[in-house]
Amino acid sequence: MYNFEENIYQSETIRDIRTAIYQGPGYFVIKDFLPKQAVKKIQQRWLSGEVDYYFDRFHKNTAVNFHTPNYLIKGANAGDRSYCINIWNQAPDDELHDIAIEANKIRNIVEGRPRYFATRNCDELVLQYRLSRTVSPGFAVKKHADFFEEFRPDPAGNHAFDPKRCQLTLFLSDYGKDYHQGGFHFVNNAGQELLFGRDVAVAAGDLVIWKYSNIHCVREVTALNDKTGFSRIIFPQFDNMAKDKLKEGAR
User: What is the C-alpha to C-alpha distance for residues 225 and 203, in angstroms, rounded to an integer?
Assistant: First the structure.
């Protein structure tokens, strides 16, 4: 299923990733995390428009708990979609579920956590993964920085300053082929704004691990392929869940 080398877990490789994120540009690209054929199959299964029926209506981040079903966020354009899949629910796609766990495992090791952290209901943070497609211009995700003492109107949990936190983006489409002009913008550790795909070489199947407290956004996407547009998977973690678990235990 995966096309990356097992040496990704070796201390030298983890050192290189940490150095790039915390002392270098603020990101590291794991090339060909997924082979092209796996990306194509995910596109075929998820971007056909036939899966919407199986997802619940939008839920606010602050309202998500262990009873929340998988849900759909619709964007400004009819083609903009984010399929939000909670790790505690039955997996709608076993392959995608395994990919999410594997990607999250890499983040955990980089952050110095146990490998399967955030995949168990008893953990302080709990994983959700979102398959998103953007085909519209404007801001799909407004400029912001996470875990940087910045106000968030609908946070997934506590956003106290935590410079070790990382986010992941698994690219499912190609800049210049499926979309152009915009996409994932990221301000690196030197304060320069970069557009992945144009300024940083990434392709469908690449996994980018990046510093969460750096300013980032998704904007000005022009779709060259309306089916795929700018498609990717991100991997937020919720800490509202721990409060929900405590309430259950107090009953």
Answer: 15
Q: For tokens 């299923």, what's the residue?
A: 1
> What pLDDT, in 10s, does the model give residues 121-153?
899 999 999 999 999 998 999 999 887 666 666
What integer is the mean pLDDT of 172-197? 97
Q: What is d(CA 160, CA 17) in angstroms, rounded to the nearest whole number?
A: 24
CA 143 to CA 215: how far, in whole Å? 6
Residue 72 and residue 83 in contact, taking contact as beta carbons nearer than 8 Å: yes
Tokens representing 133 are: 């497609």
H-type alpha helices, 80-227: 94-111
pTM of the shown model: 0.92
Please determine, looking at this structure, whether the domain spanning 6-249 carries the CATH number 3.40.50.150: no
Give yes or no for residue 249 having a pLDDT over 50.
no
Domain boundaries, the chain: 6-249
